[in-house]
Automatic annotation (TrEMBL), chain A:
Keyword set includes Manganese: no
Signal peptide (residue range): none
InterPro entries reported in the protein's UniProt record: P-loop_NTPase, YhaN_AAA
Organism listed in the record: Oceanobacillus neutriphilus
Pfam families: AAA_27
Name assigned to this protein: YhaN AAA domain-containing protein
Lineage: Bacteria, Bacillati, Bacillota, Bacilli, Bacillales
Record SUPFAM superfamilies: P-loop containing nucleoside triphosphate hydrolases
Keywords: Coiled coil, Membrane, Transmembrane, Transmembrane helix
Annotated TM spans: 462-481, 487-505
Domain YhaN AAA: 1-196
Coiled coil ranges: 196-234, 278-324, 389-443, 529-566, 609-834
From TrEMBL, chain B:
PANTHER family linked to this entry: COMPONENT OF ATP-DEPENDENT DSDNA EXONUCLEASE, PHOSPHOESTERASE
Membrane-crossing residue ranges in chain numbering: none
Domain Calcineurin-like phosphoesterase: 6-204
Pfam families for the chain: Metallophos
Name listed for the protein in its UniProt record: DNA repair exonuclease
Taxonomic lineage: Bacteria, Bacillati, Bacillota, Bacilli, Bacillales
Domain of life: Bacteria
A GO molecular-function annotation: exonuclease activity
Entry annotated with the keyword Protein biosynthesis: no
Alphabetically ordered keywords of this record: Exonuclease, Hydrolase, Nuclease
Length: 980, 404
């Protein structure tokens, strides 16, 4: 494959430039530094492999925005191929026939090589050499190898990376790496799950265990049932024991009654009936006989109890009078009532009118007709006297009043009269004025007159009083004597005492008055008084006045005198009246003495009392007539009563207290008597009836007896007693037989069939069964306990199984473990991929080494030998820690790369590249690019180098970039000068 | 006589069996996943009761001996008890995963459960209202495997049975699959006089024939990446002239494989939104396996670390949604420019690296005393995958190193 022409539309510094390469395989592009050699080199790579956008931008021309170009290639098989690229994306391939082809087609032509690989193999620049030299010497062999293999250090780096990555993931005996961690986690989970599983696995055993338990449970239940049956049997035996015993007894007794087994009971009923009938008849006969006896006895008793005929008559006679007596008694009661009524009326009247009179007095009292008038006149007289007396007293009082009025007036006048001294003074004044002293004497006389008068008066009063007191006392005493009232004496005494005292006081007064009168002897003090005219007049007037007063006083005195005389007159009248009164009173007392009724009764009411008495006396008379009547009636009753009492005594009856009771008793007796008679008649009839009945019964009994005897004979028994005995035994026999049958039946009902035979033969002792039963019960209790225990165990077991069944954690753990496993698988898968990748890489390296390195080294050896002019003839590939070695051909000395000179190092490198190119790219025949690679070559070696290049150019196109003309010229090929 | 039977046909319950390919699942979701086989079973029972079926057929693999759990059998018993309460019979046969001689727990099932307890085909009559309504045929695996063709053993029973229903746990014989159990040819089944063939063993729902119906109901709950979509049972109504079949989904959680294209996305947030948008909308919780198609762009090339972070973010949001979703795994395919060199020396090694070479390298761990217990040995495919992944990794790494 050859590049024929390149046209640059724009790339780096190159714009619109075309380079045509000649047919020669050796093309040298000569140009100075900065002449665009490397850019051109890059353009060719761009044309072949395209470029990333970033790189495109780097090469975009500064002056033109157009990036791209065209390249014409001459391919040995496909002919001329056109490639046109614009920017990073646009590319067109045209085949020889002018048709456009796709990229795959073009890649195929390039041997599916990418830019990196191409560069590693076919593209070689001075930069590579520089890198080669700058590299650490010890790494050089690795690098050489990597260049040799893929042309890159990538493999190496990838390897390192994978290794460290794998280390992080897993170490066979580590714990930290991810997978190791996961593994230990899983192991723990698995262990736990294993344990859970083991537990779960026990489910089967648990089920088996429950089966065993259930079987045991069932067995135990059966055993219990069996024991229960036995127990039931024993209990039954115990229960039926009494029945069995009874059967035994009954059988024995039946044996004893075997003789009457065939005794006939055909006429049993008849005989029995007859027997009963006869008995009944006998009983009835006896009872009738008894009745007869009773009746007879009763009749005799009654006959004794009845009264004799005489007495009966008397009784009748008495009772016949009963009506009359009753009437009389009625009358008696009425009269008594009337009598007591009258008596009560009288008494009531007396009480009502408060009359002092008894009934006896009333009966004796006589009331002559004149009394009425007499008592009436007495009354009038008394009224008259009293009236007069009242008038007298009134008049007396009037006088007394008049007198006291006058005395009052007199007193007033006396007061108005000036004192003697004053008058005297006045007189003196007058006397003095008018010879004075004149009226004094008269004055004094006047005064003593007054006093005298007063004394007299007092004396008169005292006398008066004594007289009145004496009269009163005397009257009191008289009255007290007349009326026989003792307290009146005391009053009269008191009056006497009072009068006496009053008299004493008065006498005292009189004495004093006398002394006063004596003391009135005038003493005239001789004093001189000056009297004026006025004073005189005044005194005169006063004195005149005084005189007037004196005159009036005198007239008053006269009138007083008159009244006093009247007073005395009056007193005389009164005295007469008192006398009259006394006479009247005597009269009254007379009457009162005669009629005690009148005592204490005012005369005023005497007439009324008269009328009252009159009425009372009339009543008393009526009462007395009633009394008489009553006495007569009572007499009659007594008479009758005596008769009755007599009868009672005769008949030996106790006397009753009252006649009525006795009458009642009599009536009762009569009634009883009648009853007795009646009963007697009845009894007689009864006795007759009973006797008849007895006759009938006797006949009947005879008939029955005959009949019975006939029947007895028929049954072959001599007497009724024997028959009945046999009958009883036969009945007993039958009854027992029935009982036996019944008991047997009961036994059959009680005992289940299968046990009957077995139980029938059991002994009859009770203790056996009891003992057996107790033993069985004990055994049963044990069994029940066992059963309970089994039940509990079963329940526990069921619970355990239930727990297992509800345990869902195991499933969860399982799933979790599965998930963890998945994760582990994931990790391992990832690890496996990386591990495989690493191993593949290593394997590839080894393979490559094995396959190509020897070839490459061999080929390189030839180049190296040639270039170094046989100085070195052998290259040793790096092994273990050692790098490339070269061997001196003559001395057979070996040198390490780092021991070589720079030129030789470069030559070794170039030899290796040539070898790689030759070995690896032989088939594809792609152009080989060299860019300023011979810097450190001496002339000799440069020439040799060129020879090698010439040989290389025989096989493939070699494009050489250089700045050294001699080098360019040394190469036998077309030289294109690069100049812009 | 208008006899008819209604029943549910299910198989491969694989109760409490382990799920594959799940890791780092949040606790709540994990719990739901762990319970999902039981939830599906409950759904099955609910459907049986709701449709008032006569009986339920369970054609093998009710649980796994491998992931043995008492819980599985207890829950099964409870489920049967629920059916028993409704007087629904159960006919069951054991398959290769729950074979009879396996180490199962002796859990006793209620009386409504009829078990085919022999390895030869027998039949159990089904009585409805006192009359024979159907004859159910079947057999159980005594051991882990049955290799002979059992179809020859199915013979219609003597007696008046309106319907004949056969249960068979096995797979169609093919020349390729080496471990096909109880292999049969479809034509073998058709002339047996059966009205319905209730098959089990194959987890993917399929109908091999329509009259008489020969049906694999599939398993009732997907358990790994490949058991995607709806999972459930068949409700069958057989009458004299008519056969009705209805598929009833039972799964508690769906496994789904989702392809998401983020080739047009230029920023991480863009990627997140795009993925969210492309997630399917299911009515039940789903476990998603994403196949992400990406592309190297000039500006933005999504790498593994970024995608992993984004998936975590997305999971955080969708796993809280209702119904939740969870991306349990993803694979990213980057559409790369073909501009990478097929390193000739790597290419050589790809050819050189054979099984023994790979195994040799991995023995370090697969033979490790602690690790081997938890690791299943790699299958050929897995080995191949490891190899390819390794090769790819190397290429990527080398390329990355070289470009830097």
């Amino acid at each position: 494959m050859k590049i024929k022409e390149i046209t640059i539309y724009g790339f780096g510094r190159w714009i619109d430039q075309t380079f045509s390469f000649s047919n020669s395989n050796m093309i040298t592009l000569l140009g100075d530094n900065e002449s665009g050699k490397t850019t051109l080199h890059q353009f060719i790579l761009y044309m072949l492999f395209g470029m990333t956008k970033k790189k495109c931008d780097f090469y975009r021309p500064k002056t033109s925005s157009k990036l791209g170009g065209r390249m014409i290639i001459d391919h040995p098989c496909e002919g001329t191929i056109w490639i046109e690229r614009l920017d990073a994306a646009q590319v067109q391939y045209f085949a020889d026939d002018g048709e456009e082809r796709d990229e795959a087609w073009f890649r195929e032509l390039l041997g599916n090589m990418n830019a990196e690989a191409f560069q590693s193999i076919y593209s070689f620049s001075s930069q590579d050499l520089a890198v080669f030299q700058n590299m650490k010497e010890s790494d050089i062999n690795e690098l050489l190898l990597s260049i040799g293999l893929t042309g890159s250090a990538a493999v190496y780096k990838v390897e390192k990376k994978l290794q460290s990555e794998l280390q992080k993931q897993f170490k066979p005996s580590g714990t930290k790496p991810v997978i190791n961690e996961k593994l230990s986690e899983l192991r723990a989970m698995d262990q736990q799950l294993g344990e859970s599983k083991r537990l779960e696995k026990s489910y089967k055993d648990q089920i088996e265990q429950i089966d065993t338990l259930e079987k045991k449970h069932k067995l135990k239940k059966e055993q219990i049932a069996q024991k229960n049956e036995q127990l039931a049997k024993e209990q039954l035996m115990e229960k039926i024991l009494p029945i069995r015993k009874e059967i035994h007894h009954v059988s024995e007794e039946l044996q004893g009654l075997a003789d009457v087994r065939n005794f006939p009971l055909d006429n049993q009923e008849q005989i029995k009936t007859l027997h009963i009938d006869i008995n009944n008849l006998n009983r009835e006969f006896a009872s009738q006989q008894d009745t007869l006896d009773t009746y007879t006895k009763k009749k005799q008793d009654l006959e004794i109890a009845s009264l004799q005929n005489e007495e009966k008559e008397q009784l009748n006679h008495l009772l016949n009078q009963k009506a009359e007596i009753t009437l009389i008694r009625e009358r008696q009661r009425t009269i008594e009532q009337d009598y007591s009524y009258k008596a009560r009326e009288i008494t009531e009247m007396i009480q009502e009118k408060q009359i002092h009179i008894t009934t006896d007095e009333l009966e004796r009292q006589e009331l002559p007709f004149y009394l009425e008038k007499e008592w009436g006149s007495l009354r009038k007289e008394q009224e008259n006297i009293q009236e007069k007396l009242a008038g007298n007293v009134q008049k007396n009082e009037q006088l007394l009043q008049e007198k006291s009025r006058m005395e009052e007036e007199q007193k007033n006048l006396n007061q108005e009269l000036l004192a003697e001294a004053h008058i005297k003074e006045l007189n003196q004044r007058i006397d003095a004025y008018k010879q004075k002293n004149r009226a004094d004497e008269s004055q004094q006389k006047n005064m003593s007159q007054i006093l005298n008068k007063m004394i007299r008066e007092k004396k008169k009063q005292g006398r008066m009083l004594v007289i009145i007191g004496a009269v009163i006392a005397l009257a009191g005493a008289l009255t007290g004597f007349a009326a026989d009232v003792p307290w009146l004496y005391l009053i009269s005494l008191a009056v006497v005492a009072g009068v006496y005292y009053f008299r004493l006081v008065q006498l005292q007064d009189i004495k004093e008055l006398n002394q006063q009168r004596k003391g009135l002897q005038p003493e005239y003090p001789g004093q001189e008084i000056d009297v004026t005219e006025a004073e005189y007049q005044e005194a005169k007037e006063i004195l005149e006045e005084q005189q007037k007063l004196q005159r009036r006083l005198h007239s008053l005195e006269d009138r007083l005198q008159h009244i006093r005389s009247q007073f005395e007159e009056n007193e005389a009248v009164r005295f007469d009246l008192t006398k009259q009164q006394n006479r009247l009173e005597e009269n009254i007392v007379d009457q009162q003495n005669h009629f005690s009724v009148l005592q204490d009764v005012d005369v005023l009411y005497w007439q009324d009392i008269y009328h009252l008495l009159q009425k009372l006396i009339q009543l008393t008379n009526e009462k007395q007539s009633l009394k008489k009547e009553l006495d007569r009636v009572t007499e009659r009753i007594y008479e009758f009563s005596d008769q009755v009492k007599n009868w009672f005594r005769t008949n030996g009856l106790a006397n009753q207290t009252t006649l009525e009771e006795m009458m009642l008793t009599l009536e009762d007796i009569q009634q009883q008597e009648q009853q007795h008679q009646h009963e007697l008649q009845q009894l007689t009839q009864f006795i007759k009836d009973v006797q008849n009945k007895l006759m009938v019964l006797k006949q009947k009994r005879n008939r029955y007896t005959e009949e019975r005897d006939k029947l007895l004979k028929a049954s072959g028994t001599e007497s009724e007693e024997i028959y009945f005995e046999k009958q009883t035994r036969k009945e007993r026999y039958n009854k027992l037989y029935e009982r036996l049958e019944e008991l047997k039946e009961r036994l059959q009902i009680l005992i289940p069939e299968e046990w009957q035979q077995e139980l029938a033969d059991e002994p009859l002792e009770a203790e056996n069964y009891y003992k057996n039963r107790k033993e069985l019960e004990l055994a049963l209790a044990d069994y029940e306990e066992d059963l309970e225990r089994l039940k509990n165990e079963l329940a526990e077991q069921r619970l355990r199984i239930e727990q297992l069944e509800s345990e869902e954690d195991i499933s969860l753990q399982m799933h979790q473990l599965a998930m963890e496993k998945e994760e582990l698988e994931d990790l391992v898968r990832n690890w496996a991929v990386q591990k495989t990748a690493l191993r593949m890489l290593e394997a590839a390296k080894n393979q490559f080494k094995d396959k190509y390195l020897a070839l490459v080294i061999e080929t390189a050896q030839i180049y190296f030998k040639e270039i170094t002019a046989n100085q070195y003839d052998t290259i040793y590939a790096p092994a273990a820690e050692k790098s490339f070695q070269v061997e001196n051909s003559k001395k057979k000395q070996r040198f390490y790369v780092e021991e070589l000179s720079q030129g030789t190092k470069d030559q070794l490198y170039i030899s290796l590249r040539f070898a790689i190119n030759e070995v690896m790219a032989k088939s594809s025949g792609l152009p080989f690019f060299m860019d300023d690679a011979f810097v450190h070559f001496d002339m000799n070696r440069t020439e040799r180098m060129h020879k090698v290049l010439e040989r290389l150019a025989e096989e493939q196109q070699v494009i050489l970039f250089t700045c050294r003309r001699e080098l360019a010229e040394a190469a036998n090929g077309d030289i294109i000068h690069l100049s812009i | 006589m208008d006899s008819a039977v209604t029943f549910i046909h299910a198989a491969d319950l694989h109760l409490d069996s382990l799920f594959k390919g799940l890791r780092h699942v949040p606790a709540n979701i994990f719990k739901e996943i762990q319970e999902s086989t039981f939830t599906a079973l409950n759904h099955l029972i609910d459907e049986a009761i709701n449709h008032n079926v006569d009986f339920v057929l369970l054609a093998g693999d009710l649980y796994d001996h491998e992931s043995q759990s008492l819980k599985a059998q207890i829950r099964l018993r409870r489920a049967f008890e629920r059916l028993d309460e409704q007087n629904i019979d159960v006919f069951l046969s054991y398959g290769n995963h729950d074979f009879m001689k396996g180490d199962s727990f002796d859990v006793e099932y209620p009386d409504n459960v009829h078990i085919f307890s022999e390895e030869t085909v027998t039949y159990i009559p089904f009585y409805k209202n006192g009359e024979a309504a159907a004859a159910i045929y079947g057999f159980s695996y005594e051991n882990r495997a049955v290799y002979e063709n059992k179809s020859a053993e199915y013979k219609v029973a003597a007696g008046e049975y309106p319907f004949h229903i056969a249960m068979l746990h096995g797979s169609v014989a093919t020349n390729t699959e080496h471990d096909s159990y109880a292999p049969f040819q479809i034509k073998d089944l058709l002339n047996k006089g059966m009205d319905y063939w209730a098959l089990g063993h194959i987890h993917k729902r399929q109908q091999l024939h329509s009259n008489p119906p020969v049906i694999y109901p599939g398993n009732i709950q997907g358990r790994h990446r490949k058991e995607t979509g709806e999972k459930g049972c068949y409700l069958i109504h057989l009458s004299k002239h008519n056969i009705e079949q209805t598929f009833l989904p039972l799964q508690a959680i769906r496994y789904e494989e989702v392809e998401v294209d983020i080739r047009e996305c230029l920023t991480p947030s863009h990627v997140e939104k795009s993925i969210m948008k492309q997630l399917p909308a299911n009515s039940v919780p789903s476990l998603l396996y994403l196949k992400i198609i990406a592309k190297e762009n000039e500006e933005f090339t999504p790498d593994e670390i970024l995608i992993q972070e984004l998936i975590e973010v997305i999971n955080e949001s969708v796993s809280e949604a209702f119904p939740w979703q969870y991306i349990y795994h993803y694979r990213m395919a980057v559409e790369e420019e073909p501009a990478w060199l097929e390193d000739s020396f790597l290419k050589d090694i790809l050819e050189e690296a054979d099984t023994s070479f790979i195994q040799e390298g991995l023995n370090e761990i697969y033979h490790h005393r602690n690790a081997r217990k938890f690791l299943s040995s790699l299958s050929d495919e897995e080995e191949q995958a490891v190899k390819e992944n390794a090769y790819q990794l190397l290429n990527v790494l080398l390329r990355r190193e070289r470009t830097e």
